Amino acid sequence: MTARITAVSLSPRHKFSKANALSIRLLAGLGVEGDAHMGVTVKHRSRVAKTPEAPNLRQVHLIHEELFEELRGQGFTVGPGEMGENVTTRGLDLLALPQGARLRLGADAVVEVTGLRNPCLQIDRFQKGLTQAVLGRDEAGNLIRKSGVMAIVVAGGDVKAGDAIAVELPEGALKKLEVV
Q1: pTM above 0.90?
Q2: What CA–CA distance (Å, rounded) separates 31 from 153?
Q3: What is the CATH number of the domain that holds 148?
Q4: For the segment 73-104, what is each residue's pLDDT rounded down to a tens digit?
Q5: What domain count does the chain have?
C-alpha cells in the first residue's frame, strides 16, 4: 500500500480544528499559506508567550487517519482537520519516523519531521476524555503520544488529498522523535 494524503486542512485563526480544503500550498521555511501557524518563528500562543523568537518547528502538523479509526472504537467521533492537523495521512506510521525524516508530499512539497505533538488541554475541550485516548504506554511503560507529528517545510508546493507520500530517512544514527 502506498502512503497517501487523505485530507488537507488549514485555519487563518488560532482555533483547535482546521477546515478541510481541496488543496493547501506549503511555503518553504514558513508552513501552510494562510494558516495561523505559518511563520519562521513559533506561532503557537503558549510558546509565543515564553519564547517569541524561537524557530517554528511546528509549521505543519500531520496525523495518521488510522488514529481516527482507533478513537472511533473507543466512542469518539473525530475526522480530518478536527484535531488541528494540516495533513491527514494513511498507510504511513508517522510516530515511528525518526527526527529529520523527509516526506515528499505530492509532486513538489517536502517537509522534514521535527518531533511529536504533545497533546494539550484543548483536546479535552474538543471532546471530553480525548486527551487520555491519544496517550498510551509501550511494553516498557514509556509514554506514547499518538496525536501526530510536526514538521517544517523544506520545499514548497501544492498538496491535496490523494497525493502520494514518499519517505526519505536521514543519514547517520536515527534520532527518536521528542516533543517539540
Answers
A1: yes
A2: 6
A3: 2.40.33.20
A4: 999 999 999 999 999 999 999 999 999 999 99
A5: 1
